[in-house]
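Input record, target 12 of the design panel.
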């Protein structure tokens, strides 16, 4: 199978950094599931809400804290 040519605009280091950020977010989400704090805002502790979690399952801040 032939690999598609990578977009020359995308630097592999940038992709790697983005993947690491994503992994850290997944890691934190798993930890929060374990602690039972998943679905709560990291900042103010209020419920993130199903809509927000459906849109972004890795969200850690509620809409108002996220915007702040
Ligand atoms: Zn909040």
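The sequence produced for target 12 reads:
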């Amino acid at each position: 199978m032939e690999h598609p040519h990578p977009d020359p605009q995308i630097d592999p280091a940038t992709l790697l950094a983005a993947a690491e950020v994503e992994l850290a977010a997944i890691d934190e989400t798993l930890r929060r599931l374990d602690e039972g704090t998943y679905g709560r805002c990291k900042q103010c502790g209020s419920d993130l809400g199903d809509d927000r979690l459906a849109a972004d399952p890795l969200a850690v801040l509620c809409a108002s804290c996220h915007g702040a």
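The CA atoms of residues 37 and 45 lie 9 Å apart.
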